[in-house]
Amino acid sequence: MTIATGSRHSMAYVAETVYGTPPSTPVFKAIRHTGTTLGLSKDSIQSEEIRADRQISDLRHGNKSSSGDVNTELSYGSFDDFLEAGFGGTWTTDVLKAGVLRKSFTIERHFSDIGLYNRFTGSEINTIAISVAPNTMTTCTFGVMAQGMDVSETIITGATYTDPTTVSPFDSFTCTLLEGGVGLGVVTALDINLDNGEENTFVLCSDETLRPSIGRSNVTGSMTVYFEDQVLLEKFINETESSINLTIEDPEGNDYEILLPRIKYNSGQPDVTAEGPITLTMDFQALLDDTTGTNIQITRTAA
């Protein structure tokens, strides 16, 4: 008996022209990943009938939803399609801003040791979470919402597959961080989260979701710094607007500049829990910036 193992798991995607429908003879691109929770779940409907024997008389499967995370180590060019879809924008002269354009993919999970494919049609990028911490690779988690899932033992007729990219992932050493335009060398962690607020939409006579509704582009995050003076704390106290500019670079010299041009801090509390260094955790909300016309922007530069 063969048991599926993570070491033989792979993922691939192809852009859809029609939502929920993979293209004919699709050319799938490999998804570099460190893990995933993308799968199918169902609500359950339990009978409320009251019986003298105290038994539950019936249960049915209810609405279906397909969703989950794709965990990655962020690398140059490997996830530009997913970043574009999550932002709702397009790369224009190597600059990506938040917009209103919706894109969908067919995503495959391949369990090669048992010969099975889980195929998710109508997959959209609902959330993006970028995390930078000392002594780690820069990680990026894509939260996916899909229309549905099917299981197959064969590829789509005429499908081909490209090899994954081979560029090195970004790390936490080769980077530059500006806060309010000034270099900040006491940061211990930075998390940037984009949430499109997608929600499943269900109708009568079907257990499948329609295309999810979409909300606002909500960019939030947190920055943890060693507490050395009052500068950042006073920005929170006085509701002073600021900005965050993070540039990450890989060993080949490719880089992404991630700009939050207008933010407000929502917290700043120097808690003491031990005798070691005191840190200040600053939660923030990104807002529309009139100059750039966006709340978040990525500029990519090839070596």
Please, could you describe this protein's structure?
The protein has 303 residues and is mainly beta. The chain has one domain. It is built from two helices and 19 strands. The longest helix has 8 residues, at 80-87. The chain starts with 8 loop residues before the first strand and ends with a strand.
What portion of residues belong to β-strands?
Answer: 35-45%
Number of strands: 19
Oligomer: single chain
Q: Which of globular, elongated, flat, extended, rod-shaped describes the shape?
A: globular
Main beta sheet: strand number and arrangement? 19 strands, mixed
Name the average pLDDT: 94
- The domain tally reads 1
Number of DSSP helices?
2
Topology as a string of helices (H) and strands (E): EEEEEHEEEEEEEEEEHEEEE
**Content-based structural category:** mainly beta
Helical content stands at: under 10%
User: Rg from C-alpha positions?
Assistant: 22 Å
List the helices and strands and how they pair.
Layout: E1 9-15, E2 27-30, E3 35-36, E4 39-46, E5 59-73, H1 80-87, E6 95-97, E7 105-111, E8 116-132, E9 139-146, E10 148-152, E11 160-161, E12 175-179, E13 182-183, E14 187-195, E15 218-226, H2 231-237, E16 242-249, E17 255-265, E18 279-286, E19 297-301
Parallel strand pairs: 2-11
Antiparallel strand pairs: 1-2, 1-7, 3-5, 4-5, 5-9, 6-19, 7-8, 8-9, 8-10, 8-14, 12-13, 12-16, 14-15, 15-18, 16-17, 17-18, 17-19
Could you give a short description of this structure?
It contains 2 helices and 19 strands. The relative contact order is 0.17.
List its salient traits.
mainly beta; 19-stranded mixed sheet; 2 helices
